[in-house]
Amino acid sequence: MILRIVHMHFKPGSVEEFLRLFEHHRDAIAGSAGCRSLRLVRSEDNMTSLSTVSIWDSASDLDAYRHGALFAEVWPHTKALFASSPHAESHTVLWAS
């Protein structure tokens, strides 16, 4: 399993637009082949700092999503709202309960 965390920092005033965009697409993203779970979290210290946390069956499932039509539709709109470059990390899950 792959745990993917994407940290995003939004321009002031852009968070609500992102939340609407995420709400519109979250079920489709979560329903992508190999996606076991999807969460959106917000920093307790910075209201413009949000992260997605997702679990994928395999790196190839994550890559298929990242190279697919849904990502191509969502990511450019999301990227335009950033205050700075996002930071993404993928981790291999060694143990989970």
Task: Note the main attributes of this structure.
Alpha-Beta Plaits, alpha+beta, four-stranded antiparallel beta sheet, 31% strand, single chain, 97 residues
SS-derived structural category: alpha+beta
N-to-C SSE string, H for helix and E for strand: EHEEHHE
Supply the CATH class. Answer: Alpha Beta
Contiguous low-pLDDT stretches (5 residues minimum) are none
How large is the share of residues in beta strands? 25-35%
> Strand arrangement, largest sheet?
2-3-1-4
Q: Main beta sheet: strand number and arrangement?
A: 4 strands, antiparallel
Q: What gyration radius follows from the Cα positions, in whole Å?
A: 13 Å
Mean pLDDT value: 97
Helix proportion: 25-40%
CATH-derived architecture = 2-Layer Sandwich
Per the CATH scheme, the topology name is: Alpha-Beta Plaits
Count of separate DSSP helical elements: 3
